[in-house]
Design goal:
By secondary structure, the protein is an alpha+beta fold. It is built from 5 helices and 9 strands.
């Protein structure tokens, strides 16, 4: 027996008390719903699964050397993972074409740690490290440094709508 929990609908009036009339409220809510449903980013190749009525586990990081059985299990019991090579994700997608892979780099820090680009672990540290004006400096003019993960804090400030350094564009 399946049990579904249906969310309680909140009356429109309580969420939008200052709108002048019911027709205007309806139009505003219809536009908001349309934006939410249609406003998905164009670059999202695979949609995130609907989690309203199900739990969908996401694996923090899978090992790179999975057996065939482990790949099948991961692809059929998890919706995705992070930080895997393109070839490894393709092997998982043989079992589940919608399997997600999340790739990211810290936007506020940069250091010698490698990250994935396609099918390789790479580092851009030699280039970024040479851009001395890209780093946020402390009051003694030294780079802000995060010791646990060995990365320096980047200067992401903007003035008059323009970045102070070249790092945001990079």
């Amino acid at each position: 027996m399946k049990v579904f929990i249906v969310p309680k609908l909140v009356p429109v009036k309580s969420l939008a008390p200052n709108l002048p009339s019911p027709p205007v409220r309806f139009i505003v809510w219809a536009l908001l719903v349309a934006l939410l449903l249609l406003g998905r980013p164009a670059y999202a190749a695979r949609p995130w699964p609907d989690t309203r009525f199900q739990i969908v586990p996401f694996a923090d990081q899978l090992p790179g050397s999975l057996t065939e059985t482990q790949r099948w299990f991961a692809a059929t019991y998890f919706v995705g993972t992070q930080k895997m090579l393109r070839s490894q994700i393709r092997q998982l997608r043989a079992y589940n074409p919608n399997f997600l892979c999340l790739h990211y780099q810290l936007a506020v820090g940069c250091g010698p740690a490698e990250f994935i680009s396609g099918d390789a672990w790479v580092s851009d540290w030699s280039f970024v490290n040479a851009q001395t004006n890209w780093f946020l400096l402390n009051p003694t003019s030294a780079r802000g440094h995060q010791t646990q993960w060995n990365w320096d804090v980047m200067d992401l400030r903007y003035t008059n709508g323009q970045p102070v350094t070249g790092f945001p564009a990079y």
